[in-house]
Specification:
two-stranded antiparallel ribbon, about 70% helix, globular
Length: about 450
């Protein structure tokens, strides 16, 4: 930002993390949840903490401090608070199910048993189950609407900081033509590619739009509107066709359910997209199918899916093991050369390969129940912000389901962490609403009956 403080930011963040770990452990666990929420999509910043003592494990330590506080603190009196049963039990089932899938991979592929911390598969599983842990941590630590609002605004501020970083890295790049090298500048996801980064933006932009359509305060609406515009800038110049499709699906949902003018904008965009969009974006879209044929990357995916279907037929129920795609030796031959593939570029097919129909069914059921929760909150909540929370979450889920058609988007902490945080907020908001209704019902006097 021109203040010469960039070199000090990692140290400041590291010290902040240490202080918050102590506060989360010995004072309030939700303070740790606030910081985790801020850091979820900032992997490139977290990577800079590695040079400090325990810096590599700082997120794990934050989680540990929060969980220890939750389990050791005295049980609060929540006798009037309705409990979430079905969805929480489904999410709880993810832990033993995915861990058993690790053992399936060990037996079927000869991988090391997942019992030691130096096992890369166990590390992969640990990073994955940190996401549903977020759901339970939010439920256990968030107590009122103000705290819900605070977490949402922490997300919004984080996304704004990501936008600023992306723009600073992209503003000197010409987008008159498309090239792969232009896609990576400005990502905060570190080890993940531009497609995953764009999927994050597509999902969170839908959430912010849903919130924008519900709240009434002019200042907040203007701030959210500007953030949506910044996000669209990021989505456009990440050149991810999957993110474009996810964004269009989310916008169509909002158009059909809330604001018809969005449908008109989409129709106009469909008619004149090759005149209003930046030249580089037009070139990227037109690459999908040219006069010479289908884009080689599309052909490669079709080849991969054909091979994967054969694997699914051999292990339809349980798959070949959690995170095992990278060991199956998938290859493509597009362009006359063999290329090894560690990903199937389709989240549904990849989960079928790794965890079978049982695993895919469990996750889709959780997503469907989550979508139902968001929609119900949107329809029945009395508060505009809470309604926007539910409405935006539905848009996020729709965008996520579409984005997963183009690659595994639900296995990465940086990409999907906010989904689990928001799901916890949705359930907590519903519980608070039901508790308020229950209390008002108990306090309300019985209506008098009068004869006619």
């Amino acid at each position: 930002m021109g203040l010469g403080l960039t070199q000090y930011i990692p140290f400041i963040v590291y010290i902040t993390c240490i202080v918050v770990i102590l506060l989360a452990l010995f004072y309030k666990a939700r303070i740790g949840v606030y910081l985790v929420t801020l850091l979820i999509p900032l992997q490139s910043l977290m990577d800079k903490l590695i040079r400090f003592p325990l810096g590599k494990d700082i997120m794990d330590l934050l989680f540990l401090a929060i969980l220890v506080n939750i389990f050791c603190s005295k049980k609060k009196d929540k006798s009037n608070m309705p409990k979430e049963e079905r969805l929480s039990m489904l999410i709880l089932l993810v832990f033993p199910f995915t861990y058993s899938a690790l053992w399936i991979g060990s037996f079927k592929l000869g991988l090391p048993y997942p019992v030691t911390f130096d096992n890369p598969q166990l590390e992969l599983w640990k990073n994955f189950i940190m996401m549903p842990l977020l759901y339970f941590m939010v439920l256990a630590t968030i107590d009122d609407k103000k705290q819900i609002v605070l977490i949402v605004w922490i997300m919004i501020v984080t996304i704004f900081l990501m936008d600023v970083n992306f723009y600073q890295n992209q503003r000197w790049i010409s987008h008159d033509t498309f090239s792969e090298g232009k896609r990576t500048a400005g990502s905060t996801f570190s080890y993940l590619g531009p497609n995953e980064f764009a999927a994050f933006y597509a999902q969170m932009t839908m959430f912010i739009i849903g919130l924008l359509l519900m709240i009434r305060e002019k200042l907040k609406k203007r701030a959210l509107f500007l953030l949506v515009l910044f996000n669209f800038y990021c989505i456009l110049f990440l050149y991810s066709r999957g993110a474009y499709a996810a964004t269009l699906a989310g916008l169509a949902f909002f158009g059909f359910t809330k604001k018809r003018s969005i449908i008109l904008i989409l129709i106009l965009l469909f008619i004149g997209w090759n005149t209003v969009l930046p030249k580089g974006v037009i070139e990227r879209i037109e690459m999908t199918k040219t006069e010479e044929g289908v884009d080689p990357s599309v052909l490669a995916r079709l080849q991969l899916w054909g091979e994967a279907i054969q694997e699914i037929k051999m292990n339809p129920l349980t798959g070949v093991g959690f995170g095992s795609t990278q060991y199956l030796g998938f290859k493509t031959t597009v362009g006359g050369t063999y290329k090894s593939r560690r990903s199937l570029h389709n989240g549904y097919i990849e989960m079928l390969v790794e965890q079978g129909f049982l695993g895919l069914g469990l996750f889709l059921y959780i997503f469907c129940q989550s979508l139902k929760k968001g929609w119900r909150l949107y329809q029945h909540a009395d508060d505009d912000f809470v309604r926007g929370l539910g409405f935006g979450f539905v848009g996020l889920v729709i965008a996520s389901l579409v984005a997963n058609m183009f690659g595994d988007r639900w296995s990465y902490f940086n990409l999907m962490g906010y989904f689990w945080v928001l799901l916890g907020l949705i359930v907590k908001a519903e519980q608070l609403s039901q508790s308020e209704d229950s209390e008002s019902g108990e306090m309300a006097p019985e209506p008098e009956t009068t004869g006619m």
